[in-house]
Amino acid sequence: MEFLDCPCTGKSLTRLVRPAVLTLLAGETLHGYEVLRRLAAMRICGGRRPDAAGVYRTLRDMEFEGLLAGAWDLPEQGPAKRRFSVTPRGLACLARWNATLAEYQAAIGQLLEAAGAALGPATDREAS
Amino acid sequence: MEFLDCPCTGKSLTRLVRPAVLTLLAGETLHGYEVLRRLAAMRICGGRRPDAAGVYRTLRDMEFEGLLAGAWDLPEQGPAKRRFSVTPRGLACLARWNATLAEYQAAIGQLLEAAGAALGPATDREAS
DNA sequence: GCAATTAGTAGACGAGGTCTAATAATGGAA
DNA sequence: TTCCATTATTAGACCTCGTCTACTAATTGC
Prior knowledge:
The first copy, chain A, is mainly α. The first copy, chain A, has helices at residues 17-27, 32-40, 52-64, 88-119; strands spanning 30-31, 68-73, 81-86.
């Protein structure tokens, strides 16, 4: 019994890219490709490198929304890079995310508990 | 500074409707409207009643995928109801969800920690 | 008699994630 | 020296899934 495409495989923890980006950029100014690599190292990405096109678009969107500030870095050597940093508005958004993430964690905890109980108290089922 | 439509408000913990449905139906057979009400009481729905159209569609999809079994209940009194129960395949899926949810929880924990550190260790920021 | 609730369906829409593909520079290996 | 991988970014199509609006139809309560 396979669930190759089933959401239960947890392919990615979607919709958390934005708080992750804000967190990364709250400490330092980075360009998109570096954000991409740092994201890949976070558990929310499950060891997989997130889709580059999606991350770059999210960065542009967040810049448009005023959460990030972007500036072109045009070195004489090498390709142009766009460096992003967090705006005050972005910081406020991250503070709000903090509360939201805590609520998410609690909600998932409740669901985990209920699921465990539903599967049987003493059952250690293994999924294929 | 408002974030009425920003994902940071955590309007809903999306993509967890399926494990929640499996959990609810693992214990008993319910019809769609009852599933809807029980979902509304779970933290993943944040106190809001989830969209009915979406839940009914999810139930149909999961039936089509063999995770749920549906049967029409046609009482002499009252409207027709469709009663859903979990199949063995659905139970296996739920067992897998169990592991996925635990990973989600840990991943969010890591993100929360990083976000807290990024906002400043001793800072108790309040978002409007 | 009318509104609210129960029970379910259909269609359009939108956010956001994935996939493919393209450009362009650099550095290393065959 | 040619070719491939990596760095760095963009564009467009597509898919999933959640939301919104709107509809049918029976029941219950004021």
